[in-house]
Specification:
Layout lengths: L6 H26 L3 E11 L1 H11 L5 E11 L3 E8 H13 L8 H27 L3 E3 L3 E6 L14 E11 L2 E11 L1 H18 L2
Antiparallel strand pairs: 1-6, 2-3, 2-4, 2-5, 3-7, 6-7
Protein name: Chemotaxis phosphatase CheX-like domain-containing protein
Pfam family, one: CheX
Keywords: Chemotaxis
Length: 207
């Protein structure tokens, strides 16, 4: 098994992410009691050495961002990072809280909404891959903090990870389009398990 994502595997990964986002859409729509739609416009596989430049190309040093980090463990071992600018985060919080007849009182309310959204996205995407592999995966609660655009790509030392999957996310809430980055950091053994899942999916659905 070559440790690469060929065209068939990329197509399979895109389909799996779309299925996962469909699951996430249903959960979010139920949560806010209104229609929501999530798109996966682009998926990129980058090496750890290329992540900083990629994130910098998608963010602005002038903005502030909310960053949610969530660890998942077992045979799928890694972390997810969800990045959303503060204006979009405020929109998300307003939508989530208005449907609960609540108003935003402070930054903690925004953090809580991003915590909920990122947890739904990570659980849906990683959970679907785990389902294909017929294995359990365990999630730690997300940790959310606010960072300046100048520091956004300086998350941590990436030496423990070998492959990075970046999902450019578009969220349609009513009349608003909200953009974010969902990044999966995988260790080498976990990437190998991902390839097994993709090959199984390709064989099952004859992609």
């Amino acid at each position: 098994m070559m440790n690469v994502l060929n065209d068939d595997r990329k197509d399979a990964l895109t389909e799996i992410m779309n299925i996962s986002y469909g699951m996430a859409t249903a959960i979010i729509s139920d949560s806010i009691e209104a229609h929501a739609n999530l798109h996966v416009p682009k998926i990129h596989i980058v090496g750890t050495e290329g992540l900083e430049n990629y994130v910098n190309s998608k963010t602005s040093k002038k903005n502030n961002y909310f960053v949610s980090v969530q660890v998942f463990i077992n045979k799928l071992d890694g972390e997810s990072i969800f990045i959303i600018d503060d204006k979009s985060a405020l929109q998300v919080a307003g939508i989530f809280m208005s449907d609960a007849d609540e108003t935003i009182e402070n930054e903690d309310d925004i953090v809580s909404s991003i915590h909920e959204l990122s947890n739904i996205l990570t659980s849906a995407c990683v959970g679907k891959i785990a389902e294909l592999l017929e294995l359990e995966v365990f999630f730690h609660p997300p940790a959310v903090d606010k960072q300046s655009g100048e520091k956004i790509a300086e998350y941590k030392n990436f030496e423990n990870f070998s492959k990075i999957i970046v999902v450019e996310t578009v969220l349609d809430f009513r009349q608003e389009k909200i953009h974010g980055l969902l990044i999966f950091l995988l260790k080498e053994s976990s990437f190998e398990h991902l390839l097994i899942a993709l090959d199984k999916y390709i064989e099952q659905y004859e992609i």
